[in-house]
Amino acid sequence: MTDDPETRTTTRAVRPYVITGGRAGAGGAPLSWETLVTATGTAAPETLQPEYRMILTHCRGLLSVAEVAAHLGQPPSVVQVLLADLLDWGLILSRPPVPRAERADAATLRKVLHGLESRL
Asked: What is the top-level taxon of the source organism (predicted)?
């Protein structure tokens, strides 16, 4: 048996269901993975568990739910529950993703890309 860190299998010390208090979903509609969140700057209570504090640290600017999940190393479903709690407590703000109809179409984006390429 080797002690090579690259071949060793690791397990998370705390299971996701423990982090969410056994909840599999938030009370309301879940935040989509593209939803942007940011910390409000309100002082967090001292009793806040570490995962919530890590979220607030990372959310000093706008981050998507998926990005927060990546920073925490947790599944997006777990992060959605934690973010819903922070949203309910007024510690973060959320901005829904831009609806598909408001996004630029692919043809317009290609024209912009070609215009930029021609200037280089």
From this structure: Bacteria
Residue 10 has pLDDT above 50, yes or no: no
CA distances from 84 to 21, 79, 94, 100 (A): 13, 8, 10, 24
pLDDT of residue 66: 92
User: So where are the chain's domains?
Assistant: 16-119
Under 8 Å between Cβ of 47 and 36 = no
CA neighbours closer than 13 Å in the CB half-sphere of residue 7: 4
Domain 16-119 belongs to what topology?
Arc Repressor Mutant, subunit A (1.10.10)
Q: Please tell me the distance from the alpha carbon of residue 71 to that of residue 53, in angstroms, as a whole number.
A: 12
pTM over cut 0.70: no
Q: Is residue 92 within 8 Å of residue 83, measured between CB atoms?
A: yes
